[in-house]
Each structure stands twice: as structure tokens, then as C-alpha cells.
Design goal:
By secondary structure, the protein is an alpha/beta fold. The chain is built from 11 helices and 11 strands.
Length: 294
């Protein structure tokens, strides 16, 4: 595989979709309220091929799905839906989006027919300033490539929330904190991206060498983990001032912002667990974490 093909394969398609308008729907009925907060995840999703390959990353996603308390619905913030303004998928039947190129036909045939949740979408819009419902997007591979391993029967409702790419990191962190109430309504909130994500510096000759990482990728990944483990989110929000390793690890913040959404939902008593903590092709890391009870 050459460099151009790989970049096409991993490319982002930042479509905005059409806006169906604002609506404030009824709060969930009491039977859907949960007394314990649901966990929150950040998944390093990596290549779309992880959707159909059985490897150490997808095996761990399957294991997690088998041990999670069953959610009422899933809210996913994916690195692959970048918009102006914040949009929430509001349709009852979201389409499966194949937002990539150059992969085997088998991957393009994958459908993940999970239902949407107009009720959750409406409540989420009501929690956020200047958010709107969207009827055009669906579920992109940043979402379904992971969630299909968690719930292969596609029987849990899923909605997506876009990333307003014109806003700074602090905006996204503060916005995410408004979602905290959903954890106690049985909603599994998932951020999907990659902590270290520099496609232009991929080590092509190391594609088959598991765990290979450039020194700067290791440095940035370990420093991020240190601050996450310490509960010190300030330097992670201020990521553009953390030195050369961070500049190389986060040349664009699309895959980084979903991590901030997950971190913003961390509460004082929450447990923290890292998993899939491994580099891929030198300049990407699959490092992921769970916030909340195991």
C-alpha cells in the first residue's frame, strides 16, 4: 500500500448534514432513569479495518461489550463528524456511513442498523446551547467500527454528536460537562478518535511491526496518560502549549477532541482504566480509557 492510498483510506469527510431544527422533547420517563452513573469511554478507533478484523483491539472491544451494564442508548462523539455548530442525529433509523476509500469491498458491505433515538437526541439538544437536530448524517465509521463490536446485534439505540471544528478545546470540554446528567439516565457516552494521530508521519515500513512508535509519539502518549491518571485536565485542554511532541502527536485536533469530551465527564469517585495502550505504525496510538466502575 502506498502513502497516498493510506491517506485516502484514513481521510476525514467533514460533512455537516441538514438541520431539522430545534426541539425540546419530554424528559425520559422514570423507568429509564438509572441510579448509578454509566461509564464513559474514549476509544482509539484506528483503521476502519478494525470493524471487520479480529485483532487485539477489536477483541478487547468485544470483551468490554460483554461486561458493560446494558445502556438505554449510546451517545457517540466521533472524530469524523466535523461541523460548524453542534449537531445531533435525530432520525429514528440512522444510515451506516462508509466515509473512507480504498478498502476491501467487504468493509463497504458492512451495515450497522442500530436504531436512533429521537427522544435522546431532543433531550441532548435541550442540554446544549445553540445545538440543533440533524436528519442527514447517520453513523460514521468512527462510531460504528467500534460500537458494532460492543453490541453486534445492533439492538441498542445510537445517536451521534458532531464536533464544532471552529471552537477551541476549552469550548468542547465545557460543552461536554453539560452531558453529565445523561450518565444517570442509562446513556453510554463514547468519544472515538486517537490520542496520537499523525497520518503524514506514518512509518510505512513498520506496518507489520506491532507496537512500533516514534519517540515523540511515546512521549506525548505517556504524558497524556500521566495527566489523565492524575485527573489534571488543564494541560490537556491547553495541548497546543505542551511542546514539540504534542505538536507532532496532534497536528490537527479532530481525533483529539473526542478524548476531551470523555474527560470532561469524569467525576471525583470514578475509577480510571486504560486499555489497548499500543502504538501503530509509529505515529498513531490506540490508547483508550474507561471512566467509571469496571
Amino acid at each position: 500500500m502506498n502513502r497516498l492510498d493510506f491517506l485516502k483510506m484514513m481521510s476525514i469527510t467533514p460533512l455537516s448534514g441538514s438541520i431539522a431544527g430545534l426541539s425540546t422533547l419530554e424528559q425520559y420517563a422514570d423507568p429509564l432513569l438509572s441510579t448509578e452513573p454509566m461509564p464513559v469511554f474514549f476509544f482509539g478507533h484506528g483503521s476502519p479495518m478494525n470493524a471487520i478484523e479480529l485483532n487485539e483491539f477489536s477483541i478487547e472491544w468485544e470483551r468490554i461489550g460483554q461486561t458493560l451494564p446494558r445502556p438505554n442508548a449510546i451517545l457517540c462523539i466521533s472524530a469524523h463528524w466535523l461541523t460548524r455548530g453542534t449537531l445531533i442525529t435525530g432520525m429514528a433509523r440512522p444510515r451506516t456511513i462508509h466515509d473512507f476509500g480504498g478498502f476491501p469491498d467487504e468493509l463497504f458491505r458492512v451495515e450497522y442498523p442500530a436504531p436512533g433515538s429521537p427522544e435522546l437526541a431532543g433531550e441532548t439538544v435541550a442540554l446544549l446551547p445553540d445545538a440543533a437536530l440533524d436528519e442527514a448524517w447517520g453513523l460514521d465509521h468512527g462510531c460504528w467500527s467500534v460500537v458494532k463490536h460492543l453490541y453486534p446485534e445492533a439492538d441498542v439505540p445510537v445517536i451521534q454528536m458532531s464536533i464544532d471544528y471552529h471552537q477551541p478545546a476549552q469550548y468542547h470540554y465545557d460543552l461536554a460537562r453539560r452531558l453529565a446528567v445523561l450518565r444517570r439516565k442509562g446513556i453510554l457516552i463514547v468519544g472515538s478518535g486517537n490520542m496520537v494521530h499523525n497520518l503524514r508521519m506514518v512509518a510505512w515500513e513498520k506496518m507489520d511491526e506491532p507496537g512500533f512508535a516514534f519517540d515523540w509519539a511515546t512521549e506525548a502518549n505517556e504524558q497524556m496518560k500521566y495527566w489523565i491518571g492524575a485527573g489534571d485536565h488543564r494541560p490537556l485542554i491547553d495541548f497546543t502549549h505542551q511542546g514539540k511532541a504534542f505538536d507532532l502527536a496532534i497536528p490537527t485536533p479532530d481525533h483529539y477532541f473526542p478524548m476531551l469530551y470523555a474527560l470532561a465527564l469524569q467525576e471525583n469517585k470514578d475509577e480510571l482504566h486504560f486499555f489497548n495502550d499500543k502504538a501503530v505504525m509509529g505515529s498513531l496510538t490506540m490508547t483508550s480509557f474507561r471512566i467509571g466502575k469496571s
